[in-house]
Amino acid sequence: MLKSHTLVETPSFREILYELQPVIDPAGQPVAGLYNAWISLNNPKQFNSYTTAAVKEIILAFREASTDRRVVCCVFTAVGDRAFCTGGNTKEYAEYYAGNPQEYKQYMRLFNDMIDAILRCDKPVVNRVNGMRIGGGQEIGMACDFSIAADTARFGQAGPKHGSAPDGGSTDFLPLYVGFAHAVESGVLCETWSAHKALRLGLLNEIVPVLRVGGEWIPNPMAITDRYVDAFGNLVYGEPKTGAEREAAKQLMASAETDLSRLDEAVEAMCTKILMLMPECVSKTLSSLRKHKQWHWDNTSVTNREWLALNMMTEGRAGFRAFNEGPKDDREVDFIRLRQLLAEGHPWNDELLRAISPQFRED
Question: Looking at the domain assignment, is residue 99 inside a domain?
Answer without folding.
Answer: yes
